[in-house]
Design a protein that fits this description.
Helicase, Ruva Protein, domain 3; binds adenosine-5'-triphosphate; 5-stranded parallel β-sheet; activator; transcription; ATP binding; globular; alpha/beta
Length: 479
């Protein structure tokens, strides 16, 4: 079961091609190379890459002209440009023309890999079909493997809402606990919109520190702050005419909320350190797992921004409130993953099903999928017995004792630490504690995944770009 993505690297320098093959190993990545524009176009047509890495200077055609051709073939494939020193103005022109990002040669793998991962992630979101069930399919037992499931009234309302709002140009706010399917809904909204063949970009507002997020969204002028060596074009400029998905919007700081509100109200903004006002026409889809009513009540989320984003809201119910859907999804994922993992599977023992149905599922559909995969990996024989469930599963539910004690122990430690910091008068407890937990969590999961970013991001249930950005931001040593 691999989620390998294809990157087309176009450069006439064999060293760069070789370096990219080494840095992006199979089976997580599949690298296809081309040494000229001519080769690149045929590789693009036959290989359907997920993203393109393109040198601006090619022997037979300019990189800029090639971007244009690639965008004509498929405007949703992100193109990253490689430029030499002194060609940054051309790169900026390319960004305004729809390139995803650019890097300046020579570069270290650490510089380019996060950009490539972000491009591949964007491509996945823009192009992986979000399949919604029709009325007939909802009631049919045979489901396409990756169709979004749901027959309970709240999910039927979600599908209807998507149908109602996708083709309109309104902002949409998607609410729901973690793992309830907000990203799938965002993809469905984009893919069924009139902007579906225009640019789509996604930003995880929680994964990027405030200063970087500002420049990521609005761009900056050369010299506007230390380290701003070149002008940078932000997402609001690149996505002009397209769609921007702002994930984890509830984690945005008040300063950023104010800036976002202005661009939503006035459809214009300035780059950081710039004075020129730039017009933009971007459809915003935002999502959060935070309780925005509570955040508005305690003043951490601006209510005027909420009303602006909330032109239309889609609320995903938690899995534990979806009635019979839980049983149906459990059966569906057992069958699907057994096929993918090539495991024998015939039935789920009634006691196993009972334990699965009795669980609270705080991580919702993502947690359900993870538990089912782990159970299948442990299973021997065609009947899924309760002993195949991961150790500690359901430990926090009443009735289980050993797991409860150990989880109470570490939670007790955490409570003490929170009170210590409260007593110190800290005003950044939330972010500090999250950072401390992430430092330990990410370092341990990376270690147990052999420092494999893809495996660790799967286990953590976050994307590769988010993981890389957390590793960089928290300066976690993963070597
Ligand atoms: N109704 C559904 N039917 C089938 N699969 C679903 C459904 N909802 C979500 N999934 C699957 O569950 C997983 C988690 O979904 P997704 O990433 O969209 O959740 P999310 O709400 O965006 O999570 P987070 O808040 O953590 O970012 C994905 O693999 C997705 O395909």
């Amino acid at each position: 079961m691999t989620n390998s993505q294809t990157l087309l690297v176009i450069d006439d320098d064999p060293l760069i091609l070789q370096c990219m093959r080494l840095c992006l190993p199979e089976p997580d990545y599949h690298v296809v190379t081309a040494e000229s524009a001519g080769q690149a176009i045929s590789a693009f047509r036959s290989g359907q890459p997920d993203a393109v890495l393109l040198d601006i200077q090619l022997p037979d055609q300019s990189g800029l002209a090639l971007i244009h051709e690639i965008r004509e073939l498929d405007g949703r494939v992100p193109v990253i440009l490689m430029t030499g020193h002194g060609t940054s103005e051309t790169a900026i022109a390319a960004m305004s023309g729809g390139a995803f990002d650019y890097v300046t040669k020579p570069f270290e793998p650490d510089e380019i890999l996060p950009v490539i991962d972000a491009a591949l992630e964007t491509s996945r979101m823009a192009r992986k079909p979000a399949i919604l069930p029709s009325e007939k399919e909802r009631l049919s037992p045979e489901k396409p493997s990756d169709q979004m499931m749901g027959e309970c009234p709240a999910m039927v309302e979600v599908f209807r809402s998507i149908g109602r709002v996708a083709s309109r140009d309104t902002a949409v706010l998607i609410l729901g606990e973690t793992g309830t399917g907000k990203e799938v809904v965002a993809r469905a909204l984009y893919q069924h919109s009139s902007r579906h063949d225009h640019v789509f970009h996604a930003i995880n507002c929680a994964a990027i520190p405030e200063a970087l997020l500002e420049s990521e969204l609005f761009g900056h002028e050369k010299g506007s702050f230390t380290g701003a060596e070149q002008r940078r074009i932000g997402k609001f400029e690149i996505c002009n005419g397209g769609t921007l998905f702002l994930d984890e919007i509830g984690d945005m700081t008040p300063v950023m909320q104010t800036k976002l509100l202005r661009v939503l109200q006035e459809k214009e903004f300035e780059r950081v350190g710039g004075s020129k006002t730039i017009k933009t026409d971007v459809r915003i889809i935002a999502a959060t797992n935070r309780d925005l009513d509570a955040a508005m009540a305690d003043g951490s989320f601006r209510s005027d921004l909420f009303y602006r984003l909330n032109e239309f809201t889609i609320s995903l119910p938690p899995l534990r409130e979806r009635g019979q859907d839980l049983r149906k999804m459990t059966e569906h994922f057992f069958q699907l993953f057994a096929r993918q993992l090539k495991k024998d599977f015939v039935s789920i023992a009634p006691e196993t099903m009972q334990r699965l149905l009795g669980h609270d599922w705080p991580g919702n559909v993502r947690e359900l999928q993870g538990i089912i995969k782990q159970t299948l990996l442990k299973a021997s024989g065609p009947v899924i017995l309760p002993s195949f469930l991961p150790s500690g599963f359901g430990a926090a539910s009443p009735g289980s004792t050993a797991g409860e004690t150990s989880s109470q122990e570490w939670q007790g430690g955490l409570v003490k630490e929170i009170h210590r910091r409260l007593a110190e008068g800290s005003f950044t407890i939330g972010s500090d504690i999250h950072d401390d937990v992430d430092r330990i969590l990410i370092a341990e999961v990376m270690k147990s995944s052999g420092n494999n970013i893809s495996e660790a991001s799967n286990r953590l249930g976050i994307s590769r770009p988010t993981l890389r950005s957390r590793i960089n931001h928290l300066r976690i040593d993963v070597r």
